[in-house]
């Protein structure tokens, strides 16, 4: 059932509830049901049991209702008793990626990258507080005037943030961020998130154990890209993932997911990302994957990349590949170990091999906008080279972003490293070698199966698109025309 139909059912339920009172039927339901028996059932069985009991009660004691009103009322009562009330239809809609409640009368959702207001509202502020209490109670947290900000997680994995008065002047504000399903590189390419040659190259980067940094703003798809790239990690490797909220869904068998823990009600027991990174180094990992670095754990992550844990991946908030370097430097300086900026920059230069930057266009499409690799490492500076960028045309009346993915040759040292690792390089990146197409096809069986074109045809399409693009549209973020610049 689509969201529109669910919202229509909610409207019918609201009309019926105004005559009967959802709270009345919920109270009658609790009087009728055997709670001990209910506790032994699974979630699906529990919901089915409550719907059956509620149907009997409404049929026996309720007013005359149409079939649609009766069904909607039963669902509303069960949602209030078991779930999150008016938010349940939104959580059931897979197209909704974010739910934003700004007080009881203003509910917004994000769908396809666009935010829109919907007609769903809470009956009162008390009902919204009850929903919030139900969420935070599941993680043994509380929200009140002494603790007006709370981060929590639903049993199904959604990340929840709550802030209430006096900090919020709009009343209780509830934000639920839904974790997108795991996408493969092929699916992201089909959604215009990247092109085929870039997907093949990034797969080679992962298998060749390059250290990758995935950067971008909030909501640009960093975690989704990290999850997609992790699919190319070989099955025999031991992987430790570290996150604030467990969003990654790795397909390998030997994966140890770690999740940080906030302090308890007394303010004790907090386990930070940095604690987990330090502990992961003692767990004999082949690779460490950190969902996001935000502070002093950045220095520990750089140390891990520099001490034999090659092929590790991490995400960071940044506005460009250059900004990602500056932000890593700033975050690493927040460690309790005070190091000179030059030393931290040396650590970054030694640890990072490539930076993948993502952006979200005005049309809501999330895509890779730039891939930069470390072309040279010197003590006083770091040289980045853009090997792929998305050059966008001006926005037209349809508000859709059009453009082309442009490619540049790989630095010789990086090309040599991939060659020694047995990885092919897509011809679109300007490196010709015997058997490159065959190596790429052999190493990317699943990836190539999703694209009907052969490796040579993909390269031809990519080059023809680049040739058709005006030269003045080329950009490299400063520096020389081949995309190389120094980050000091």
Automatic annotation (TrEMBL):
PANTHER family assigned: TWITCHING MOTILITY PROTEIN PILT, TYPE II_IV SECRETION SYSTEM ATPASE
Protein family according to the UniProt entry: Belongs to the GSP E family.
All copies of domain Bacterial type II secretion system protein E, residue ranges: 83-359
InterPro entries: P-loop_NTPase, T2SS/T4SS_dom, T4SS_GSP_E_ATPase
Signal peptide: none
Gene source species: Actinomadura rubrisoli
Gene Ontology molecular-function annotations: ATP hydrolysis activity
Residue spans crossing the bilayer: none
Name listed for the protein in its UniProt record: CpaF family protein
Entries under Pfam families matching the protein: T2SSE
């Amino acid at each position: 059932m689509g969201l529109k139909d669910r919202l229509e059912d909610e409207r019918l339920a609201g009309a019926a509830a105004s005559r009967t009172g959802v709270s009345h039927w919920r109270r009658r339901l609790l009087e009728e049901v055997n709670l001990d028996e209910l506790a032994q059932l699974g979630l699906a069985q529990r919901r089915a049991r409550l719907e059956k009991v509620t149907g009997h009660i409404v049929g026996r004691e309720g007013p005359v209702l149409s079939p649609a009103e009766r069904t909607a009322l039963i669902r509303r009562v069960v949602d209030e008793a078991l779930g999150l009330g008016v938010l349940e239809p939104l959580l059931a809609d897979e197209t909704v990626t974010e739910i934003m409640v700004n007080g009881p009368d203003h509910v917004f959702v994000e769908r396809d990258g666009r935010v829109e207001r919907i007609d769903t509202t809470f009956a009162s502020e008390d009902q919204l507080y009850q929903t919030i209490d139900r969420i935070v109670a599941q993680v043994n947290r509380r929200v009140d005037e002494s603790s007006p900000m709370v981060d929590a997680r639903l049993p199904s994995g959604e990340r929840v943030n709550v802030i209430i008065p006096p900090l919020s002047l709009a009343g209780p504000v509830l934000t639920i961020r839904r974790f997108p399903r795991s996408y493969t590189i092929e699916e992201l390419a089909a959604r215009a998130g990247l092109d085929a040659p870039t997907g093949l190259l990034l797969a080679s980067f992962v298998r060749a154990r390059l250290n990758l940094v995935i950067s971008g703003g909030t909501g640009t798809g960093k975690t989704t890209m990290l999850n997609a790239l992790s699919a190319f990690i070989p099955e025999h490797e031991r992987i430790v993932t570290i996150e604030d909220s467990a969003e990654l869904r790795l397909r390998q068998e030997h994966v140890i997911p770690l999740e940080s823990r906030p302090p308890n009600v007394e303010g004790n027991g907090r386990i930070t990302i940095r604690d987990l990174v330090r502990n992961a180094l003692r767990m004999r990992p082949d690779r460490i994957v950190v969902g996001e670095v935000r502070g002093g754990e950045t220095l520990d992550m750089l140390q891990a990349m520099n001490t034999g844990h090659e092929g590790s991946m991490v995400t960071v908030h940044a506005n460009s590949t250059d900004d990602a370097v500056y932000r890593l430097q700033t975050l690493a300086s927040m460690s309790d170990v005070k190091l000179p900026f030059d030393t931290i920059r040396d650590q970054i230069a030694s640890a990072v091999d490539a930076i993948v930057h993502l952006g979200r266009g005005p049309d809501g499409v999330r895509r890779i906008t730039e891939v930069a690799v470390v072309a040279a490492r010197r003590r006083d500076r770091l040289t980045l080279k853009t090997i792929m960028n998305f050059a966008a045309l001006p926005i037209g009346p349809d508000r859709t972003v059009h453009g082309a993915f442009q490619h540049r040759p790989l630095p010789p040292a990086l090309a040599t490293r991939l060659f020694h690792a047995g990885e092919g390089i897509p011809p679109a990146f300007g490196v010709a070698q015997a058997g490159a197409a065959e190596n790429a096809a052999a190493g990317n069986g699943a990836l190539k199966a999703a694209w009907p074109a052969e490796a040579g045809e993909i390269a031809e399409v990519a080059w023809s698109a680049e040739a058709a693009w005006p030269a003045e549209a080329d950009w490299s973020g400063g520096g020389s025309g081949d995309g190389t610049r120094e980050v000091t």
